[in-house]
Design goal:
With about 270 residues, the protein is an alpha/beta fold. The chain has helices at about 25-35, 45-60, 75-90, 110-130, 135-140, 165-185, 205-210, 220-225, 235-245; strands at about 15-20, 40-45, 65, 95, 145-150, 190-200, 260. It is globular, with a radius of gyration of 18 Å.
Length: about 270
């Protein structure tokens, strides 16, 4: 028997949507997809930022990155994004549910708003966007090449965080389990689900947690990563490489998993 391994990791020609794709981990994944020949839609709340990122990535990677701004914390924004994508495409090969928010406050003072906002975006938003995009995902998936959905969770959904982000950790644990539920229902329809649980990456969200208020350029990322077993924070190659693997032929038999991409934080703790 002869087996062809030549295109094992290719995603060339695929169409992807990356939510929260205007910065941070979403931008890293979008850039990786573009550099490997995919057409990529990105979405985020702030239209100016989303448009600028799409233009910059298109130029940098000589690909097609298209901005569709949307607020995914509620059904109106979710439905608008799904409708616009359905107007533009007849199928969707890859969905990366990356849009997410956090909230930090001491336990005794943690507000209801900080619970609801995080759960609405990180769990409810993922569920209903996936639901609304099922027609496009079903049109893409086949036994030989299933459609792929990657849910971006967090190591904070696998272990207790050092930060007072109570709703964030709970939301990511819920997302990891939702990933398994969706896999159980949709794998036989040739749509496969996996989650990635990132550890420390040089993002706006981590910058706020370590006291830099969202500024990423002025952070001593070497110091932040020094306590990690790998001795550093993650890079775009780390997170994009795992996402590309999961969306390629190489990852077609990996289903319902939550994979930590964290330099060993969870496994060695």
């Amino acid at each position: 028997m002869s087996t062809d391994f030549s295109n094992l990791f290719t995603i060339e020609g695929k169409t992807a949507l990356v939510t929260g794709g205007s910065r941070g981990i979403g931008e890293m994944i979008a850039a990786g997809f573009l550099s490997h020949g995919a057409r990529v839609y990105i979405s985020s709340r702030k239209s100016e930022v989303c448009d600028a990122t799409a233009e910059r990535l298109s130029e940098q990677y000589k690909g097609e990155c298209i901005s569709i701004p949307a607020d995914l914390s509620g059904l109106p924004g979710i439905e608008a994004l799904a409708a616009e994508l359905q107007d533009r495409e007849t199928r969707l090969d890859i969905l990366v549910n990356n849009a997410g928010v956090s909230w930090g406050a001491p336990l005794d003072e943690f507000p209801e708003a900080g619970w609801d906002k995080v759960m609405d975006t990180n769990v409810k938003g993922v569920f209903f966007l996936t639901q609304k995009l099922l027609p496009l995902l079903r049109a893409s998936g086949s036994a030989e090449d299933p459609a792929r959905v990657i849910n971006i969770g967090s190591v904070d959904g696998l272990k207790c965080s050092a930060f007072d982000a109570f709703s964030y950790g709970a939301s990511k644990a819920a997302l990891h389990h939702l990933n398994r539920f969706l896999a159980a229902h949709l794998t036989k329809e040739h749509i496969i689900f996996n989650s990635i649980a990132p550890g420390p990456f040089p993002t706006w969200m981590l910058s706020t947690g370590v006291g830099f208020g969202g500024e990423t350029d002025g952070v001593d990322w070497e110091k932040v990563g020094a306590a990690n077993p790998r001795g550093r924070v993650g890079t775009p190659e780390d997170i994009a490489g795992l996402a590309i693997f999961l969306c390629s032929r190489a990852g077609a038999f990996v289903v319902g998993e939550t994979i930590a991409c964290d330099g060993g934080t969870v496994a060695t703790s």
